[in-house]
Amino acid sequence: MPGQAREKKIMFPRRENEPEYALLNDPETQLVNRYGKPVETVPRNDPRRQDDFVINDEPQERINPNRYKQHGFFFTADNCIACHACEAACSEKNDNPAHLAFRSVGFVEGGSYPDYRRINISMACNHCDNPVCLKGCPTRAYTKFAEYGAVLQDPEICFGCGYCTWVCPYNAPQLDPVKGQVSKCNMCVDRLEVGLKPACVSACLGKALEFGVIENIPAGREQAKTGIPGFPRTDITHPNIRFQQKRTLPRDMKRVDSMPLKYHQDDREGKFKPVLDPKPGFKRQWNLKKLLGSHENAHVAFTLSAQAVMGAFALLVLGSWFGVAPLADYRQSAALVPALVLMVILLGFGMLKLNMHLGKPHRFYRGFYNLRMSPVSREIAGVTLFFIGLTGYTLFSLFDAGWAEVPANLLAAAGLLGLGYGGYYMYKLYRIPARPYWDHWHTAAAFIGAGLTLGSLLLAVMALVFGSLSMDQGRMLAAVAAVGMFLEGMGLLFHYRNLGHSESEAAVSFYEQGTAFGYSYWLRNALLSIGVVLALAMAGLGLTGPATFGLLTLLALGSAALGRAMFYVLVVPTTMPGAFFWKNKGFAEHARESGLAEMPQLGVAYERHHEFKLSELLQTIRQTSLKDKMGQFRRIFTG
């Protein structure tokens, strides 16, 4: 009836005989947490606080009096027996496939017989005070919930870029390789609303997992640490989890997965820090198949093509505007339009390649949703503006008339604005504390160096092809290429020195670049060094013929391709330790190569989301009538 109040419903059915250990019990709470942030997520007099909790326009009955307080997990490492009941309960409640787990159990071990110690670590999302996943997500799929302080994620908004999995230090967001979208722990907010602890906590056999308002120490516990061996650094996100671990441990606790990392106790601070544990030894290899067949090859193609085009465009436009004679002459040469057309094609190819790398490429437009916080959204916006400016500048360059000069320059200015904005955030999105190998200024040196080197060579090669390269142009473009390669080389040198003394996962990157990819690494360095010498000789001696520029281009392209591939392959995130099989990157790679991944019980899946979309689309075309096609297409392309 109109105006009639709707009946309040309970969103999660609570059993009458619910055991006491499954019930929330926080009669008293702290005012602030250890990071100085209020435990109350919304002030008491704030109008946003509501007695009713509304889900899908349905008012829910309020049972939990601590709804607007930050909740978190408490883990007692001494009690965990690695039974994986928490994993099973979580996956059952969330209906997860075998290859996904919002909560997982790993372990580290140390000592020797008979004094051998092992601690297990059960970990899910920590619903942090500073959720970097929320800030990084370009689609705004994340929300820091006022109720309970839960960080929630909507898979139906996600387009599968996986950036949240890059920035999270704790491996919490899970990118499904089959569906091509991210999902994660939701703190079981439906259970919290009726006074129940999350499913994983209720299922724990050894009372290792507890849950409640953050900073409340559960009964029978004494400690509330922010870290234990194997748990990554907490200063990035201020996670809402506390630990108790009282057993004495050896000074070195090793991982049992394929990660060559262990945790060494620092006597000064009393904390365990990640250091290198070279399990496979120091055998140098090529590993070209793994290097050039990387999952991130779309990023390699996009960054290199975009930076080459940005460098060429900046040289062409700024050189013309500021009256640099060799570059101003290029504006009047026969190579101008073909070079611009090639730049549009290269950038379009890179953008298409990157878009098709998304788990849900048909949702690409959602990349603009989070311009306020996400560096990915800002990069997308900047590169899109650059592409528009470049394309418009190319079109107006086809007209040999005075009237075309003004719109061409306006579009060039827009392109340069997009270049600066998009190029800056192309770099910023890789300065990720949770991936220390990238979090160094060498990333900027590599990107700027690639732009100068490849951009100048693009212009030089096009001028050679169309027979318009003058001596002055050749010497200037060779000099710019030398500057770009020298800048990248300096970044690599300082990065190498920094990695050699690091106390983080970057030590593993340093180890692998000298062993697993050792020959490829030194080949890249040799190509880069020879390229610098050759480019300087060309600029100084005027050796600007097709042979020398051809050789320099091959050296630069080889160095750039190897270097950028290693940039993605060598990065090691601040991950949680796994087990012998479960959450072990080495085993997952072996399972995919050997065919074991066909067995779902092993928890390893092939990447099938692109194949799935294509097959579904083809099946739609073959089997449906014309009348039904539009509705099915709409379903496919809107997810």
Mean residue pLDDT: 90
Strand order of the largest sheet: 5-4-12-13-14
CATH architecture of the largest domain: Up-down Bundle
**Model regions low in confidence, pLDDT < 50 over at least 5 residues:** 1-6
Q: What is the total domain count?
A: 3
CATH fold title of the largest domain: Formate dehydrogenase/DMSO reductase fold
Q: What level of helicity do the residues show?
A: 40-55%
CATH level 4 superfamily of the largest domain: Formate dehydrogenase/DMSO reductase domain
What's the shape?
globular
Structural class: alpha+beta
Secondary structure tally, helices: 19
Radius of gyration: 28 Å
- End-to-end gap: 36 Å
Biggest pleated-sheet summary = 5 strands, antiparallel
Q: Class of the largest domain in CATH?
A: Mainly Alpha
Q: What's the number of extended β-strand segments?
A: 14
Q: Could you tell me the strand content as a percent range?
A: 5-15%
Explain the overall architecture:
This protein is an alpha+beta fold and 639 residues long. Helix content is 44%, strand content 10%. It folds into three domains: 28-251, Alpha-Beta Plaits; 291-569, Formate dehydrogenase/DMSO reductase domain (Formate dehydrogenase/DMSO reductase fold); 608-639, no CATH class. The chain has helices spanning 85-94, 132-136, 163-167, 189-192, 199-203, 288-292, 297-321, 325-330, 336-356, 375-397, 405-428, 442-465, 471-499, 506-514, 518-541, 546-569, 585-594, 609-623, 626-637; strands spanning 53-55, 58-60, 71-76, 104-112, 115-123, 142-144, 151-153, 174-175, 182-183, 209-213, 241-244, 252-255, 261-265, 272-276. The chain has a five-stranded antiparallel beta sheet. Strand 4 and strand 5 (115-123) form a beta hairpin. The longest helix is centred in the last third of the chain and has 29 residues, at 471-499. Mean pLDDT is 90; it is low at 1-6.
